[in-house]
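Write out the bound-state structure for zinc ion.
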Amino acid sequence: MSVRLDNALLVLPGRRAGVGSMETQGGRILGIEMDSAARADKLVIPGLVNAHAHSAMTLMRGLGSGLPLDRWLHEAIFPVEAKLKAAHVLAGAKWAAREMVAGGTTTVADMYDFPEEGEKALSAAGMRANTCTVALPFIPGRIGKSVEYASSPALGQLAMRDLCVHSEYLSSEEACFALAEANRTLCRPVHVHVSETKAEHEECIKRHGKTPMEYLASTGLFDHGGYAAHCVWCTDGDFELMREKGVSLVHNPTSNLKLGSGIARVKRAMELGVNVALGTDGCASNDDLDMFEEMRLAALLACGTSHDPAAISAWDAIEMATANGARALGRDGLGVLAPGAPADFAVIDLKGCNLTPALDAANLVVYSAHASDVMMTVVDGKVVYDRSKPDGGAADRAEFLGAVRDIGLGGFS
Ligand SMILES: [Zn+2]
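---
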């Protein structure tokens, strides 16, 4: 299969953009030709990498709005999650995959129960997915299952399986040691939540005399790197440790704002050499899977809070959502439009009012575009979303809403 795009404004490596043609063959970008006389009617960006999500939380979109993290988890989320069965997670992840590919997301790191179902749904949608079994020590046998899952072959070429502890506060020394030991052979970055709230950060210091990042790193958990969601309360020392250990920071600006957790100091992390990626987090705290929104917020928050309009540039935000995300997930080489690179990209319709005129490509992507402006998404050279084609969404919608009702959340749909 090959895809050819002409009159395309291409977002290229080296922070360059220009109009030209791009062609793919198999799963790779075959060639790019620039044409300075051509006018663009579409914009092409590398596929977006959502480096921290809980896909099946589409089932509980917006639940518990207005609660802080600890109450949100215990009063709104955990009681519903206790009812989840494999079929619910499959339906929720399928629905999430639809939303993600329709918004230009080609790769996702998914942390959730029944990961085989998540992997199945995301892979069936044609996405690249990093899934994991969370090593929750209070569930008997779960630490072993986490290791077993990461050690067994993933479903298809595009999927990867990682090790995962939820966080310092939902983990144990035993879990961290077991995963660190298994990772001597697996050598995979570990997926984790770190210092999301002030209370979590401070309680860890009281318990262990160490910050969550220091504590988790001291167990050997990050000896092959990791990707840590949130990091809102991380210290400069934590950032230095992250650079040293190869732990990427996954910034989740919408979720952190909505739950009142705070604003991660991503500019400082970047200055100290940390790889910064972006993620949406789950749909119950975001409440969508729109990576354009995350790019925009990442840039706006950094500029606004530092009183510096150049604190995080539009190009910085694009790299966070593409190549940096790929690096975080141990998928180096993804996230750029270049001959020979994997053919993962999103095509944005430039004819919309909000995208005309196209004066500055990076600025347009970050500050003007929405997920709904994406007209086509390609992963590994295959078209996984085409706005102009019927997509059989009715059956998935019925299955999804059936699952929502089954877990006791009727709503208005
Ligand atoms: Zn999360």
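---
Residues 48-328 form a domain with the TIM Barrel fold (CATH 3.20.20.140).
The chain has a mean pLDDT of 96.
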